[in-house]
Every structure is written in C-alpha cells, then in structure tokens.
Design brief:
The complex is a heterodimer of chains A (270) and B (231).
Chain A (H helix, E strand, L loop, with lengths): L1 H23 L2 H14 L28 H29 L2 H14 L1 H10 L3 H16 L8 H6 L8 H7 L7 E4 L3 E4 H11 L3 H8 L1 H18 L3 H7 L4 H17 L8
Helix pairs in contact in A: 3-11, 4-11, 5-6, 8-9, 8-13, 10-11
Chain B lengths: L1 H35 L4 H18 L9 H15 L2 H9 L8 H26 L3 E15 L6 E15 L2 E12 L2 E9 L2 E2 H35 L1
Antiparallel strand pairs in B: 1-2, 2-3, 3-4, 4-5
Helix pairs in contact in B: 2-3, 4-5, 4-6, 5-6
The chains are: A mainly alpha (270), B alpha+beta (231).
Chain lengths: 270, 231
C-alpha cells in the first residue's frame, strides 16, 4: 500500500505542478488559439467590409444630458482661456521658482486638510476599512508627516487614500448625474456633483476660513489651485489638443472619470 | 515490538522528509512561475512598445526641437506595430461605422490614425520622464456565435494594467488588447478610467449627427493640419 500511495502521490504532485505552471503561462491558451483561429479566419478577411464584431459586445453609449450646452460652452471657452492665458503661465512661473518637492508638499498639505470630507463620505458609503485608513493617514501625516506636508502613511505604511466626496456618495446611492454643468472657474460638473460640492463644504475646514475672511480664503484657494496645476501641466493640453471638439472631450472625460470614481476603479465589464 | 516501532518511526521520518521536500518544491514553483515563465503575450507587447517609445523620447540626440518630426515618425513606426487602428476606428465611430461605405471607412481609418498618433504621442511626451510600472494583466475569453456561419468563435482579449508615477501621484493606465492571429494588438487606452475610444466616440457621434461624414472628415483634416503645424 505504501509504495502505491507514494506513486499516486508523486503523480498527483506532478499533475498539480503542471496545472500551476499552465495557469500562469500563456502558452497553454495560445496553443488553443492557434488551432481555433486557423479555423475561424476566413481566407479573404476584409476588415473594412466586416461589420464590427464588437457591436453586440459593447454597443451602449453613455448619454450625457446637456440641455444647457450653449451656456456650458461659453463657460468652457472662458475657463479654457483662463487656463491658457492666466493660470498656466502663473503656474509655470511659480513652478520655476518653487522646487518640485515643495510643491508636492503643499499639495499634500491641502489634501490632508480636507480629510474630514473623505472621512465623512467614506462613512456615508459604509466603507469602514477605508474610513479607518483615512483616520490613520490623518494622524500619521499630521504628526510624522509634519502638518501633512509629507505622506509617510502612503510611503511607509502603505495606507492609500480613498478620495470620496459627496457627489460620489450620492452616486453610490444610485442618484444619477442629472444635467451636465460646466461652471466658470470650477470647471466640469453635473447637477449631482454640484450638490455634492456644496454638501462637502460643510465639512471642509476652508469653509470656516471663508466665513471669517473671504479675501484670505480666496487667496488660499487660488494658491493651492496654482500649486496643483503646476504639477499637472500637460494633462489638460493633451486632452484638449488631441480632440476634435474640446468641449465634448472634456464633458465625456469628466463623465467617465466620475463614473470610474463611483465604481472605485472596478472595471465595468458586463 | 520495539523494532516494529522503530521501523514505523523511520517510515514517518521518511514521509516527513518527502513531504518537506514537496513543500519546498511547490512554493518555489508557484512563486517562481509568475516572474520567470510568465509574462503573457499582451503584457509583453505593451511593455516592449512602451519601453521602445520611452527610450526614443528619452534619447538626448533626438530631443532637439528640429528633430521633433523625426522623433514622432520613429515613435509612429513603433505604435503602428502594436495598435489595431481599424478596430480602434470602428469602435470610436460606434454604430456610425455601419453607415459608412467601404471607401469612407478606409479614408476614416487613415485620418483617425494620424489624429490619434499625434494625440497619443503628445500625451507620452508629457509623461516621458516618469516611471512606468507594469502591474498585471487579465485574460478574457469571449465566445460568440457568428451570425452568418452560425459557428462558435472564440476571441481573446486582455487588459494590461500599468501605472505612471508622476510627481508622487499614481496615474493608472490600462491597455485593452485583442489577439489577432498570433499578435496582441491594442484597441483602447484607458487613463484614470477615461477610455480614449469612448471619448472619441462621444465626439464623433455628436459631430456625425450634425455634420455627417463630410463634416467629420473636414474636422479631422483640420486637426491633423494643426498638429503638423505645431511640430
């Protein structure tokens, strides 16, 4: 019995290992593929005449409801000019003067400051673990990270922030976007996300600054905006310059970006 | 009695050793395979293309402004081998693809390829100094029935997940690929959840509704002209 058991065990292990390596290596599947494709491919395959195969696979187009398009386009145009004529040159000049690590630090500082927004929305979405992570991050980054300038929580403790806001919370409750809105200065938004933005201000520490000193608050907002833009120069340009209709490109990018945020980056495969 | 016991313990020890040996072997196999054997075809395709393109972008001898055109042409040659522009074009047009004649499709693919290359390359140029991490990939098998031949056809698709580290921020970029004969070809690039193809589809569908194919073609030509000028 002993020998037989050993032999059986030996073969079982061999099989197991075979299965392991097969599941990791792609060779197994490509062998099958070669066989199939030689059958499936018709001799005179004409990609231009072929009626796209994917049509039934993902034919759904996301509709964005945009009844205020003329107004939105005007504001888009305004923001676009504001960016290229004012914000970008200022951010660029600022970027020349202030070294990159300092700018990253300032961005971290403001990100750390609006921690209540993330915490409240994580809680509202019932994300217990992410809420805990946010609290831990705030404690670590405010202390070891020197008032939030550094991000040791991510670099040394592997605690990744989960950027939740009230717009996403409403979205996760099933509320649709509503109409598309392109606000002056703020940029692309939707009815839902605008409500979200307003809601978030109640837990945003900068609101209290706004209430007491509007000028200071405005300069803080402008400062942080310029700082953050200085770190992403080129992103907006790439989107707008590669598009046939920049307004639609931005509108759709915003829509997809928000939908992805609400799904928390999970793929939307049907 | 005693010898029997001794014999038993010897057996146990032997079994023990055998099991230990197996235990040692197995994890090695499991741990080692993903690193050594495994880079999937799709991942390999994305990695080589991105690395080739980045090395061109980082090449100091091509960095001068008067060499920009040459540099773009070099990059385009690399991208042509890795992207399926017919698939990208048809997906970006969506249902309107079905409304185009064969000749219109051919001209559309040519124009859109040029538009995309300029766009994708300018994106890459913005990221040229950043670190790219090749995270993992996902293989999907899609079985469908061909409407004409009623045959079951299996196609393979893959999503390759990469991250770009830019100024201490991670930007997730996914490449969607499909297997054509023996090669993996990219048919969509998804940056922070924003699909390039879907983004163009939203533009094309609105332009097509108002201006039809003629208007679309005009706009693309205009776009290419602008990109050429900015070189």
């Amino acid at each position: 019995m002993g020998r037989l058991a050993k032999v059986i065990l030996f073969f079982m292990i061999l099989l197991l290992e075979g299965a392991f390596s097969a599941s990791y290596a792609d060779d197994g599947s490509s062998a099958i593929l070669d066989e199939r494709s030689s059958v499936a491919v018709v001799d005179e395959y004409d990609p231009f005449a072929d009626d796209a195969q994917w049509i039934d696979e993902e034919g759904k187009i996301d509709e964005i409801f945009d009844p205020l398009e003329p107004m939105n386009r005007a504001f888009f145009h305004f923001n676009d000019k504001l960016y290229f004529w004012l914000i970008k040159p200022v951010a660029r000049g600022y970027g020349f003067v202030v070294p990159k690590p300092a700018r990253i630090g300032i961005r971290n500082f403001f990100h750390n400051l609006v921690f209540p927004v993330r915490l409240v929305n994580n809680l509202l979405q019932g994300k217990v673990r992410a809420s805990g992570t946010e609290i831990a991050r705030f404690c670590l980054n405010t202390t070891i990270g020197v008032v939030g300038l550094g991000d040791p929580a991510r670099h040394y403790f592997d605690l990744v922030p989960s950027d939740e806001d009230f717009g996403q919370t409403l979205g996760s409750y099933g509320l649709g976007e509503g109409i598309y809105l392109h606000w002056p200065i703020i940029g692309p938004s939707s009815a839902r996300d605008s409500i979200g933005l307003a809601g978030d201000y109640f837990v945003n520490p900068t609101l209290y600054l706004f209430a007491s000193d509007t000028v200071a608050a405005t300069s803080v907002y402008t400062g942080s905006r310029v700082n953050n833009v200085s770190l992403v120069i080129g992103d907006y340009e790439a989107l707008v310059e590669g598009s046939l209709d920049p307004y639609i490109a931005v509108r759709n990018a915003y829509h997809q970006y928000r939908a992805n945020k609400i799904r928390d980056g999970e793929s939307a495969e049907q | 009695m005693k010898s029997k016991k001794q014999w038993m313990s010897k057996r146990i020890v032997r079994w023990w050793l055998f099991c230990a040996f197996v235990m040692i072997l197995l994890p090695v196999q499991v741990v080692a395979s993903p690193e050594v054997v495994v880079e999937s075809g799709a991942m390999k395709q994305v990695r080589t293309t991105v690395e080739q393109v980045l090395s061109i972008l980082r090449d100091k001898s091509l960095a001068a402004p008067e060499k920009r055109r040459e540099r773009r042409e070099l990059i385009m040659a690399r991208i042509k081998n890795a992207f399926d522009f017919v698939e990208i074009s048809s997906r970006a047009l969506g249902r309107n693809w079905l409304r185009l004649s064969r000749d219109e499709r051919i001209s559309f693919v040519g124009l859109f390829t040029a538009v995309l290359q300029h766009n994708y390359i300018s994106k890459l140029e913005a990221y040229s100094n950043e670190e790219v991490l090749f995270v993992n990939d996902e293989l999907n098998e899609i079985v469908r029935t061909d409407p004409k031949t009623k045959e079951r056809v299996t196609t393979y698709r893959s999503t390759v997940f990469t991250d770009i580290l830019k100024n201490d921020h991670k930007i997730p970029i996914q490449y969607k690929l499909k297997k054509v004969d023996d090669q993996w070809l990219v048919y969509d690039v998804v940056v922070e959840g924003v699909s390039l193809v879907m983004n163009y589809r939203s533009q094309f569908s609105q332009i097509y509704d108002k201006e039809k194919y003629v208007g679309l073609e005009e706009r693309m030509k205009e776009q290419i002209r602008k990109s050429e000028e900015s070189l």
